[in-house]
Amino acid sequence: MTDTWTGCYSRGWGKDLTPEAYQHPAKVSFKLAERIYQHALEEGWVKAGDVVLDPMCGIAGFGLHALLNGLNFCGIELEPRFVDLAQKNIALWRHKFRALPNLGRALVVQGDSRQLKAVLERASGLDMICSSPPYAEGIGHGHAGRNANKDSYPERYAAQEKYASAFESEGNLGSMPEG
What we know:
Elements: H1 30-43, E1 51-54, H2 61-68, E2 72-77, H3 80-96, E3 106-110, H4 116-122, E4 126-129, H5 146-152, H6 154-167
Parallel strand pairs: 1-2, 1-4, 2-3
Helix pairs in contact: 1-2, 2-3, 5-6
C-alpha cells in the first residue's frame, strides 16, 4: 500500500510561532507536521495521552500538532537559543489554545541527541519518535550528497548556502565534523 500526500507545504506558520522563532533556518512545514500526526493517529500508532519524542526539535515545530491532538511532546535540542525559542512557542500555544479540553503537555530540554540511547534507556512510556533531523550535507559542508542536493534543488541549495553560516555555532550539529 502506498500513500500519496499532497498539499503538505500549502500553509505557513503564520502567528502560530513567536516572531523570534522564524530565525531558525529549518522549520518543519506546518501542514507536513499536521499530516504526519494525522497519519499516525489514523494508523493507531499513537492515541491521546501518548508521548512523542523529537530528538532534534529545533523550535518545537512538531510540538504544536502533538498538543492539539492531545499528545504529550518531549523535545531535545542541542542549541540553547533554540531551546529558549521552543519554550516560548510552547507558552504561546498553551495560551492560544488554553480553552481546548484535551490539550497535550510539552517539554523541551537542552541536550545532545547523539546520546539518545542513554536517554531512551531511562525513558518510560515513549510511544513515537517524530523528527526532522538536520543534515549537514544539505547546507553545503562538502559531505556526501552536497552535489546531488545542489543539482536537484538549486533554489533550496542557494537559500541554504545563504543562511547556513548565520545559524552555525560551535555546538550546532551542522557545523560538527562528520561521524
